[in-house]
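Entry for the shared binder. Reason: the reviewer on the internal report wants the predicted structure included alongside the sequence.
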Amino acid sequence: MDQQKIDIYLATNAKSFESHLIPHISEMLQRTDDSRYIMIQSLGLKDPTTMLIVSIICGHWGIDRFMLGDTGLGIAKLLTCGGLGVWTIVDWFLIQSRTKELNFQKLQRGLM
């Protein structure tokens, strides 16, 4: 893929990935042909900051986990009212890294 397209992609989506993975993502994109660029742009990555806000506002209902696709954990969190509040607080610290991890997995699947 053209280096300019890679730079544009990374500039617009760097916050969606862990910072230590950015060089690896750049390498993966360099090995990809230009025809996949439009598909990669339309992957629909989740914004970690938005997920944190959702987790703070209504995380005790498990909505944050449902949005990430963790249906089983979302149901468990809903039925236990966020693990009596403990799970909700723990998720405030973990939800952004979980979102970035899932975004990276989605990118890897898109590049295959």
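Summary line for the report: The first helix runs from residue 3 to 13.
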